[in-house]
Design brief:
CATH architecture of the domain at 6-42 and 203-267 and 370-419: 3-Layer(bba) Sandwich
Number of strands: 20
Number of helices: 14
Shape: globular
CATH superfamily of the domain at 6-42 and 203-267 and 370-419: FAD/NAD(P)-binding domain
Structural class: alpha/beta
CATH class of the domain at 6-42 and 203-267 and 370-419: Alpha Beta
């Protein structure tokens, strides 16, 4: 039996952030990660020389917590172009931020994706989203994203052609029922920073976080069987037990619910299915997001990551990522993949038939539902009293930024509680 001061269950970004902030305050911790490596939902696999993120993901460089905790230069970030290629009326149309790409102003003004009024409203919304402190966003009146867009006066056509596929890919839900507190944050981040990926894949982010911790403070393949909040005892597979002064539940919410035996149900999560293909030639030339503005077919969004980061594909090859909202059962994966290929052929021609399927990720717990940006107060206070702390992006805005922020806030609350002993 070992007795570290703080045990963190879960080696995702939230747990790693918590451990880093604890270390800064002179508090050591032990991370227990059930899988073979840290990273949680942010992992990158190597398949036939390609680097495949487990689901399409990006880092928004304007995220304040990320900016403070991560070394962007060491990550060798590669940026997407600030805009999108939108499929509409049988053609692709560039819709680019003219503030960042002034040369695209005329083509953006001529784009059929939005009316002239919609473009003015979009510029006004960008200005409004960037006003004031970021913390102020959490205290604005809360509604759904769709209701906000309607109240801003955007046409239904523009919402369908741009906002639903774009934000649907960010929120992983097409109805735009996500809280405006997350929308305000995300829209501000897209408006004031870049959408980027680290060279070699998104897993570079948790690897960098872990590199700042003592190697002995991370245990992988450590499966937690039970947690006793009365005695702060953790039982691992193999009957090993660990007793800690404080426990941080930095695992997914549904896992924390099971281990702590909460009676209430966890938040629902949004799922996504991501297909990766290898191609000899990229179907597009621009390193930007491709959106389905027609609203038909399984594809929500796609990209060519190798146009952004050449290291993610072998020389002479292109890596293609296609995302479909929702998850698919194993026996239906083949059918969905055929439908995706058929839609891609309609978009890019028969050469799509030569694409090689690399891997499919169907991720049921890809993103917690963001109906509110506030803590679940009842659960939060219960665990604080018992010496067990909840930690994760489901307690904040569900995002990389939310995970980093929750890690820092949990560490601050934990250090505060230790100081009162």
């Amino acid at each position: 039996m070992s007795s570290p001061q703080v045990v963190i269950i879960g080696g995702g970004v939230a747990g790693l952030s918590c451990a880093r902030h604890l270390l800064d305050q002179g508090v050591s911790s032990l991370i227990l990660e059930s899988s073979e490596a840290v990273g949680g939902r942010i992992r990158t696999d190597q398949v036939d020389g390609f680097s495949l993120d487990r689901g399409f993901q990006i880092l928004l460089t304007a995220y304040p917590e990320a900016s403070k905790l991560l070394d962007f230069e060491a990550l060798q970030l590669r940026n997407y172009e600030p805009g999108a290629l939108i499929r509409y009326q049988g053609k692709f149309h560039q819709f680019v931020d003219p503030v960042r790409r002034p040369r695209k102003l005329l083509s953006t003004l001529r784009s059929p994706i939005a009316t002239f009024g919609d473009k003015l409203r979009l510029a006004r919304l960008k200005l409004k989203s960037c006003r004031g402190a970021i913390q102020d966003l959490y205290f604005r009146p809360e509604t759904t994203t769709l209701q906000r867009l309607n109240s801003e006066g955007f046409s239904s056509g523009f919402i369908d052609r741009f906002f639903k596929p774009f934000l649907g890919g960010v929120f992983l839900e097409p109805e735009l029922a996500t809280s405006t507190r997350k929308f305000d944050l995300v829209f501000r981040m897209f408006s004031s920073g870049d959408a980027a990926v680290p060279a070699g894949g998104m897993e570079a982010i948790p690897r960098q976080l872990a590199s700042g911790l003592p190697s002995e403070s991370i245990r992988v393949n450590a499966q937690v069987k039970s947690v006793d909040p009365e005695t702060n005892t953790i039982e691992l597979a193999g009957s090993e037990t660990i007793v800690a002064s404080r426990i941080v539940m930095a695992c997914p919410e549904h896992v924390a619910h099971r281990l702590l035996e909460f009676e209430s149900a966890p938040l629902e999560s949004h799922g996504v299915t991501c297909f990766y293909f290898a191609a000899d030639v990229s179907p597009v030339e621009q390193p930007m997001l491709i959106l389905n503005g027609e609203g038909v077919g399984p594809i929500n969004n796609m990209s060519v990551p190798s146009l952004v980061d050449r290291r993610c594909a072998p020389d002479g090859k292109s890596l293609i990522s296609i995302s479909c909202l929702g998850v698919v059962e194993n026996n239906a994966e083949g059918q969905l993949r055929r439908e995706v290929i058929d839609q891609a052929k309609n978009w890019f021609g028969t050469s799509v038939g030569d694409w090689k399927h690399l891997k499919t990720y169907s991720i049921p717990y890809a993103l917690p539902r963001s109906n509110s940006a506030f803590f679940h107060r009842e659960k939060f206070e219960y665990t604080r009293r018992s010496g067990v702390f909840l930690c994760g992006d489901y307690l904040e805005t569900a995002s990389l930024e939310g995970a980093l922020l929750s890690g820092r806030m949990t560490a601050e609350h934990l250090v505060e509680s230790l100081a009162t002993e």
